[in-house]
Write a structure and sequence with these properties.
By secondary structure, this protein is of the alpha/beta class. The protein is built from 12 helices and 9 strands. Strands 7-6-5-4-3-2-1-8-9 form a 9-stranded mixed sheet. α6 packs parallel to α7.
């Protein structure tokens, strides 16, 4: 069977990693980004835009490193918007470099803006840094009327602070919602001891976050929570993500292709160089067993299996394959919290 990258029009997500440079040094960074990383060259960017033009994906997500460090970012957004007018263009940034000019640019081109923040300022400084600048820039986005979402990487450091962060962000009328990324045993997270929260702490943190979001909802401030949406839609019938559905492609600054951003730079999942790839019909570059529910054999008899959307297959691969840790995943804990507090299981 031909892979769906082969000109069928079913490539739904392209992840464009324009740089591995970053002005932060997050303690868990799976790509181990640093200030002296690699930028995407003009030839790779041109080929990437050609691929986007060919497939017209639903979403083009621009990431890094820190994408606002990339000098060609404005040009990339403009050319992508011309090449694929119906694609949603999203940018995931750490928020430190946003200024008024950037805010106005995001607004003009309807960029779906995501900002990575791991806690209230004091807690975020322990994990990522430069919190004062980030929250100042959130105020600037508010002034310019630019909506944004927030991604939180859940660690032992911020687990019991997430509910405070949600209440703080809820004061911004342009804050749309949040998503949680659970730690992946790759990169710096392998070296940093104690970052993975224990099950009891994680359960307490997630329960308090759920309570804070429901409290705001009762006050008329509805906050979108990605994980709650996934469970509420009973993801059993579909794939957890576009990679699991074989409909995503991630492009490294050096032009190497991978099935997903979490797998960037891992030779086990290298597809080929983008210039060699364009126009080809190829088989999937990774085994079909790279699905969370195939890796997590215990899912077969799980109490939440009928509405569970599964888990990130890349994270599951790194956290479970070859690991002695065969306990429940963070997603399992979250699912059981939802089951007990809602009518999802009925």
């Amino acid at each position: 069977m031909a892979h769906l990258y082969s000109g069928s029009g079913r490539l739904s997500t392209v992840i464009l990693c324009v740089t591995t440079r970053c002005n932060l040094s997050c303690r868990y960074c799976y790509m181990e980004c640093r200030p002296d990383g690699e930028d995407m060259g003009a030839e790779v960017l041109s080929s990437s835009i050609k691929l986007i033009s060919l497939h017209q994906p639903q979403r083009v997500q621009i990431t890094g490193g820190e994408p606002l460090l990339y000098k060609g970012l404005r040009k990339a957004v403009v050319e992508i918007s011309r090449a694929s007018p119906t694609s949603i263009i999203s940018i995931q940034t750490n928020g430190t470099l946003i200024n008024r000019e950037w805010a106005q640019f995001f607004k003009k081109f309807h960029v779906d803006l995501g900002i990575s923040i791991d806690g209230t300022p004091e807690v975020n400084d322990k994990i990522r840094g430069k919190s004062e600048r980030i929250f100042k820039n959130l105020g600037l986005l508010k002034e310019e009327g630019v909506p944004f979402g927030v991604t939180v990487v859940v660690t032992s450091v911020n687990c019991l602070d997430m509910h405070r962060l949600s209440l703080l962000l809820g004061a911004f009328p342009n804050f749309l919602g949040l998503g949680l990324d659970f730690l992946t045993r790759r990169g710096r997270a392998l070296c940093e001891r104690g970052l993975f929260p224990d099950e009891a702490t994680l359960k307490d943190g997630l329960e308090m976050l759920l309570d804070s979001i429901r409290f705001m909802g009762a006050q008329g401030r509805n906050i979108y929570w990605r994980e709650l949406k996934r469970f509420s839609s009973k993801g059993q019938s579909g794939s957890f993500c576009h990679m699991e559905a074989n409909s995503a492609l991630s492009i490294h600054p050096n032009g190497c292709l991978y099935p997903c951003g979490h797998l960037l730079g891992d030779d086990r999942f290298f597809i080929e160089k983008i210039n060699d790839f364009l126009g080809k019909r190829i088989l999937p570059p990774y085994p079909i067993s790279l699905r969370s529910k195939d890796i997590l054999r215990e899912c077969t008899n799980c109490e939440i299996r009928h509405f569970c959307p599964g888990d990130c297959p890349a994270r599951t691969f790194y956290n479970r394959i070859g690991s002695a840790d065969l306990g429940t995943t963070a997603t399992c804990i979250l699912g059981r919290i939802f089951l007990k507090s809602t009518s999802l299981g009925s």
